[in-house]
Amino acid sequence: MNSLTGRDLLTLNDLSSDELTGLLDLAAKLKAGEVAPQCPGKVLGLLFSKASTRTRVSFSVAMYQMGGQIVDLNPSVTQVGRGEPLVDTARVLDRYVDAIAIRTFEQSDLQTFADCAEIPVINALTDLAHPCQTLADLQTMHEAFGQLAGLTLTYIGDGNNVAHSLMLGCALAGVHVRIATPENFEPLPEITELAKQLAGDRSDVVLTPDVKAASEGAHALYTDVWASMGQETEADDRAPIFADYQINDKLIGLADPESIVLHCLPAHRGEEITEAAMEGSHSRIWDQAENRMHAQKALLASLLGLV
Ligand code: CP
Ligand code: NVA
To answer: Can the peptide bond before residue 266 be classed as cis, meaning omega within 30 degrees of 0?
Structure first.
């Protein structure tokens, strides 16, 4: 694959289609145990301003399995939490760690950090994007269908960070993407435009409020919480607006008979997805969560120049 040595992953359109495919191939090889890159002595910093289970632990375990280490830069235990300027923090951490994964609110803060640091900077989730999640999502779809190009993924719910990255990742991979949201909760117009540009004439990017039409014949049904981290106070107001935007057996019945059900987690059973859909035979949610580790190990191996 093309090495991504020294690069950043701030959004999925930092990658070309070939680079994305190369990462997914490597992730599959890592999962199968066909390759085992090592990085003894390398350290990944984790600077997380929001809660995380999967991203934090999968990055940590990926580093440990490659013989490297992580250092926790949680704002509550560093000067970041006391307001030290990001530009100063970035220039200092750049001299200590070999790469850094950042979970924060503003994409512009991630960009500022990357502008001030030479080391690879990885978006571990912002309000705008969650590219590492999409790597695992596409790996999971490829495992289920043996290909990506020509498949259809339907995302149901809020046009949020997860939806944004899925749109860009599907566009790069030639996957048709349908985004079903209530009115006024669509993805950002600039992300939709970018996804359409990246997709070109290989695949479609469709936005609709019609959740049933969007689900017909889909190969993957995907959802995420109705209110993301930082939007907790909106959750009660959003619940009635989003009530129909739920993955349940009825919607699965409209999709392709072999369709898979995906959720980035954490999930709210009974809201955006039913218990039956999470635990049913179409669900690949637990494989998807596992693939976070393989996909991010592939990303780290490539950014650290191990492959
Ligand atoms: N899907 C995901 O990013 O989960 P965490 O918030 O637990 O990292
Ligand atoms: N959209 C969710 C994703 C969590 C992994 C959030 O930002 O809270």
So the answer is: yes
pLDDT digits (tens, 9 = 90+) for 119-174: 999 999 999 999 999 999 999 999 999 999 999 999 999 999 999 999 999 999 99
Q: How far is the CA of 202 from the centre of ligand 1 (A)?
A: 30
Question: First-to-last CA distance in the chain?
Answer: 8
* 8, 158, 224, 256: the active-site residue: 224
279 SS3 class:
helix
Q: From atom 6 of ligand 1, which residue's Cα is the shortest distance away?
A: 52
Residue ranges making up the domain that contains 34: 2-129+292-303
Q: How far is CA 76 from CA 47, 48, 92, in A?
A: 10, 10, 18
Residue closest by Cα to atom 1 of ligand 1 = 264
Q: Is the CB of 133 under 6 A from ligand 1?
A: yes
pLDDT digits over 207-234, tens only? Answer: 999 999 999 999 999 999 999 999 999 9
Q: Is 126 within 8 Å of 106 (Cβ atoms)?
A: yes
282 is catalytic: no
Q: How many domains does the chain have?
A: 2
* Angle between helical axes of 285-303 and 17-32 (0-180°, round to 10): 110
Ligand 2 centroid to residue 81 C-alpha, Å: 21
* DSSP letter, residue 303: H
Nearest-CA residue for atom 6 of ligand 2: 228
Which ligand is the nearest neighbour of the Cα of 51?
1
Residue 165 Cβ contacting ligand 1 at under 6 Å: no
- Is there a single domain that holds both residue 37 and residue 82? yes
Name residue 9's beta-bridge partners. 122
109 and 139 in a common domain: no
